[in-house]
Amino acid sequence: MEQTEILEGNKIIAEFMGVKFHPTVEQWKTSPGYFSKELEYLTNWNWLMPVIEKISKVQVIGATEQSDTCYPRTFGMLQNDTGLPMFRFNCCHLFVGATLIEAAWIAVVEFIKSENDFKNNNL
Q1: What pLDDT does residue 15 have?
Q2: Planar angle of CA 16, 92, 87, nearest 5 degrees
Q3: C-beta of residue 58 within 8 angstroms of C-beta of residue 68
Q4: What is the reported pLDDT for 122?
Q5: What is the CA radius of gyration of the chain?
Q6: What pLDDT was estimated at residue 35?
Q7: Which regions in the chain score pLDDT beneath 70?
């Protein structure tokens, strides 16, 4: 995965989570009074899991029941032909990564992009 792709994906996740970039200190303000130079969504489960939890509460588009949400449906199963870990949110595409956190990160970024596209087209 290229560095520009990682930076862009982390930015998309940060904005989804309400994290703000503070230009005067050139760092991300991740919580009151705390700044982080780097976003660790791709490398740290403590950063990524709150995002997965937030997505898990999003109702599936066209759902008929309140319990129809975008919960993790595939988490850590290995792809038959490659042995690589997979991740998928309910009613979303399946993603494969070199590591489980990478597969989850890709799924998160793609989910947020899809949600943003849906919101922008339905305004």
Answers
A1: 92
A2: 85
A3: no
A4: 64
A5: 15
A6: 75
A7: 122-123
